[in-house]
Amino acid sequence: MDLVQKLLNKNIRVTELQAWGAYLRFQWEYSFAGGLSAAEKAGVYLHDSDGACGYLWHLFSWKKAECLEGDSADAAFSRAEKAGCYLFYQHCDKALILDDAFALQTCDLLGEEDVYITDRQFRWTYVRTHETGLCGPYFHHLDKSPAVIKFK
Known about the structure:
Elements: H1 3-9, E1 13-17, H2 21-33, H3 38-43, H4 58-61, E2 68-69, H5 70-79, E3 84-89, E4 95-99, E5 115-119, E6 124-128, E7 138-141, H6 146-150
Antiparallel strand pairs: 1-4, 2-7, 3-4, 3-5, 5-6, 6-7
């Protein structure tokens, strides 16, 4: 079953957008990696460069921002407010707007790679990577340190 159908079956309202991925990746970078210089971003391969494939989630794997990882990230995502979210991917421009996504859980994303979910205000993000288990999943909240998120 594809992801959209899974979400619809959970009574999550889904709007599919074919060309929003680039915009959402830009906004994600601005919101979560905006404090890094261009040199720092290049140093962690945030973008494709010289044949190396860049990933926004390198912000977390290279420890440039505090985050929760693994089971702690999954637990924080499960508790996150999900009234309205964006879901988008690293390498394609398809994106989803999710409304009433309270039932969205990490198990719904098991077949997804390099997928980013953020609230509409870009205050928190959950990332499931193609290297989940080695790198990620990650959860980051701009307003809370990992310790506060963990014991919320």
